[in-house]
Amino acid sequence: MKEVRDGRQGRGGRDDRDDTVGRRPLRPRSRRPDEARRWQLSRVFGVIAGVAGLLAIVAVVLATVVLVRLTDARSTLLDRVGPAVRAGQQLSAALVDQETGVRGFDMTRGEEFLDPYRDGITAEQRSVAVLRELDASGQIDGLGADVADVEAAAVAWRAGYAEPTIAALRSGAVTGPAEAERGRVLFDQVRAASTNLLDDLETERVTARERLEDAARFVTAVGIAIAVVIAIFLVAAGIALRRAVLAPISRLAAQVRGVVSGDVGRTVEGSGPREIAELGADVDAMRVHILGELSALQQINRRLDEQARELERSNRDLEQFAYVASHDLQEPLRKVSSFCQLLQRRYGGQLDEHADQYIEFAVDGAQRMQRLINDLLAFSRVGRTTAGFVPVELDAVARAAVASQERARIEADGEIVVGELPQVPGDAALLQQLFANLVGNALKFHREGVRPEVHVNAAPVDDGWEITVRDNGIGIEPEYADKVFVIFQRLHARDMYAGTGIGLALAKKIVEFHRGRIWVDIGPRDEPGTTIRLTLPTVPPAGSVTTGDPALAGGVAAEKETV
User: Fold this and answer.
1) Phi, psi for residue 375 in degrees, rounded to 5
2) Is 209 within 8 Å of 80 (Cβ atoms)?
3) How far apart are CA 461 and CA 465, in angstroms?
4) Less crowded by CB within 10 Å, the N or C end of the chain?
5) Taking the model in full, what pTM does it have?
6) How far apart are CA 46 and CA 102, in angstroms?
7) In this structure, what are the phi and psi dihedrals at residue 449, rounded to the nearest 5 degrees?
């Protein structure tokens, strides 16, 4: 016993030397030299982001270049070469219309045949104006010279043949073969210049189309190249992140899982970037710290186990002492009670008044002592003599308890109403004793002139059932709601209400043995009576199948036979 007291030096049975366990701070970890040389995660992601940004800039520049090139080739073909080709064709057609009109006028002398000639001149002027405007942009090489040649040849044909022929025909003269040959020669020059213009424009059109096709192919090639580079970059970035970040984290997680699974002696080491390495070192420092705390807690637990075993032995000794003491007190107490009663019956009225009063006091004291010892025996036997929990029908148990209180009910002219009660796991004898105590108290503490009424009901709760025993008696003040469950605690004088003060304490012990709780429901002060509530779980507690000490069980049986 001296060793046990030494293990509980502080107040409340705690060891003052162990108050700091679980609250010792984790000392800062010193950084290792190799950690300073490792890249940080921010640097790794910064490099990857920088490369990605550079690739994005290059891709944007290349895309801009190829789009500008494609746009320029398209503009040259559609906005310059194409209109020039159409204007050249229109110019050639206008020249042919002029030659056709002069020939028709020469053959018919009809002025209406000069309309194509005059319209051709107008169309020629428009086409030449368009071609000169396009030549001014400088996008088509030699366009101005070709247009000048066509225009000069046309002017020479009109001045040398068309205008003189029209004037002669209008004056009534007749043109001969010589004039016709001169006109043919001059117009051949016009046709040659026009054909040269159209050939040069066709060459420019083919060249512009090839440039457009080259630009389109270049766009396709650049797009494929950009896509390939992006794919290569994503693969490389994924591999780099896997090797630099994910793989170290996976290795660290595997080491931590190893420690969690029980290999607490395994050193945790981080690799890769500085943050992961520092995290691994911090986890290992925490592991070492927890090992130290665990070792200290194991020592405390060993001491607590020793103290618990010592307390268990002490409790068994105390229970055995209480049982034996109360059991052995029965015999001399029965003798005292029997002889006092015998003395009262045989010599009652033969002695003086004081002697009769003394004998009555002795008999009453012996009887109260016997009731007190019996109650103590019942209190000490709770949980010791049961063979285990079985399904118990509370309805039958409560009705048996009510039947045991039939004499008290008749004397008080009371009414007991038992509602529908459930089935719970427990000890039937103890539960019957519980209901008997609660119903007996409800009948005993009734108000004068008021017929006592007791109602027993049940309602489901989260983990079982809540049993309610309600009466219309004298009630319990709120300040005594907890005090009434203390053993030997009485709120009234013995001459007012009989009893030993163990009834509600025994009820509380029975309820707590069934892993429930019991309390006084404090209602409004203007409502008379007392309401006792208790809970009984529907699931039997672990280890509820218990057996009492065979020797004690035999002693109890012998005691029941002799009382």
Assistant:
1) -65, -40
2) no
3) 5
4) N
5) 0.41
6) 82
7) 80, 0
